């Protein structure tokens, strides 16, 4: 297989998992924000499961593809869902729940893709090189990577906002100021991945998540074997 064919195959396998992993991650923030009193995302039409409403050309498509070709976790980002934390009923406490909604959505999607893999493998007997098996594996990997990466406790990542919501107010205000350097933080993390400085954290976290998926699905696997 030449490089062009390999690239096309990678795009085909990863396209749907990446689009939905990023889009549902963002929509989850908006749904939880609306639940706690902020309708900003709803008012701007961002409470949608339609990936086209959330796609960022570079962050959603090009960046994950580049990272996957470099054999790094296929991370990316969508257009951020607008959240006005000041409109939440309890802004400091509830911002942590809004932030946690994104990784929680990726956890649920990763479990969903793992369920599909189990059904295709043990119920329908698909070979492991089948296209839908490969897509299922991509969905597991992409969502595991996004969940773990976004839990890094640095603003503007979700983990940083969770920490901000848990800190005492004076410390939270200072910690939240890191968010103004968000793009630099993101670039630094990508470079750290490139040089292997985050490898143990990301790979270890992904393996832990996938072990949890297996544990939750063990009864189904046991029945189908």
Molecular structure report:
The chain has 225 residues and is mainly α. 71% of the residues lie in helices and 0% in strands. Helix 4 crosses helix 6 and helix 4 packs across helix 9.
Please identify the structural class as seen in this structure: mainly alpha
pLDDT average, as an integer? Answer: 89
- Overall body shape: globular
Assembly category: single chain
Largest sheet: none
Number of strands: 0
Rounded to an integer, what's the Rg over CA atoms?
A: 18 Å
- What is the tally of helical segments? 9
Q: Please estimate the helix content.
A: over 70%
Ranges where pLDDT stays below 50 over 5 or more residues in a row are: none
Taken as a percent bin, the fraction of beta residues is: under 5%
Give the H and E element order: HHHHHHHHH
What is the straight-line distance between the termini? 34 Å
């Amino acid at each position: 297989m030449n490089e062009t064919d390999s690239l096309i195959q990678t795009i085909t396998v990863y396209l749907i998992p990446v689009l939905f992993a990023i889009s549902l991650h963002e929509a989850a923030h908006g749904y939880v924000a609306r639940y706690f009193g902020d309708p900003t995302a709803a008012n701007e039409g961002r409470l949608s499961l339609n990936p086209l409403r959330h796609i960022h050309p570079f962050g959603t498509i090009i960046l994950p593809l580049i990272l996957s070709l470099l054999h790094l976790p296929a991370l990316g980002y969508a257009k951020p869902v607008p959240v006005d934390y000041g409109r939440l009923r309890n802004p400091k406490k509830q911002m942590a729940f809004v932030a946690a909604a994104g990784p929680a959505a990726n956890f649920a999607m990763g479990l969903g893709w793992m369920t599909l893999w189990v059904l295709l493998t043990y119920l329908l007997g698909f070979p492991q090189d089948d296209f839908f098996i490969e897509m299922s594996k991509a969905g597991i990997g992409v969502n595991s990577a996004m969940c773990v990466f976004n839990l890094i406790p640095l603003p503007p990542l979700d983990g940083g906002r969770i920490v901000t919501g848990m800190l005492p107010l004076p410390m939270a205000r200072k910690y939240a100021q890191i968010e103004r350097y968000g793009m630099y933080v993101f670039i630094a993390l990508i470079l750290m991945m490139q040089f292997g400085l985050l490898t143990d954290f990301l790979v270890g976290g992904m393996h832990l998540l996938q072990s949890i998926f297996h544990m939750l699905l063990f009864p189904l696997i046991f029945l189908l074997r």
